[in-house]
Design brief:
Layout: H1 10-20, H2 25-32, H3 36-44, H4 51-60, H5 65-74, H6 92-105, E1 110-113, E2 119-122, H7 127-130, H8 144-149, H9 161-179, H10 182-192, E3 210-214, E4 217-227, H11 234-237, E5 240-246, H12 249-259
Antiparallel strand pairs: 1-2, 1-5, 3-4, 4-5
Amino acid sequence: MTSVRTRPAVGELLRDWRQRRRLSQLDLAGEAGVSARHLSFVETGRARPSREMVLHLAEHLEVPLRERNDLLVAAGFAPVYGRRGLDDPDMAAVRRAIDLVLAAYEPYPAVVVDRSWNLVAGNRSIALLTDGVADELLVPPVNVLRLSLHPEGLAPRILNLPQWRRHVLHRLDREAHLTGDGRLRALHDELAALPGGADRAPPDGIVVPLWVRAGDDVLSFLSTVTTFGTAVDLTAAELSIEAFLPADAHTADVLRALAGP
């Protein structure tokens, strides 16, 4: 005999997301404006939620769009969030926005990555961060987190590698937990196994700098991440723009000089 693996019910999935967000049924019911009794019935399968209720609860649980589609399918409804490639004609506005933002950050390095931190696009200044990186790490899909922490990547040039490594792993661990994405969890475990030391000192500030050796210079960067917060297409919603801004006047001067007139 063979066993048939059934898809989790929508109530189970909603309960998993609620527990991941560390909310009680009463907490979620209060935030979403529904009765705790009805929410309990939905989670246990005694009540079938409407399409609108699934999306309403998903919004309050901050479920990523990809997983909202999974909730809808589990509830017996069609997905509502499409996924188109960036080369699709309908994505022309997104491509223009990406190009404008990347150009605006010049001469400071900036990259566009997908949900798995694979490189989608970058401006000319990222050559400063990829200089000397092993060729195999630059074969698409290029994972920018792997590139930064790998001993054949940027890692040997990062002067505060233990501190930066802790920052990257903490961020990746949080994203894996919030999204439930197994690929992010696998990436976290892979990067955590790389050498680089452990920074066990308590954080001394909100912002973690990145100190990179570039020839005879030491450049200091602050990292910022921007997302397309109102996107309803999966491709656009899962894109992030990470920019490395100068943390001191010297770094700004060096980057401007490298960019030329």
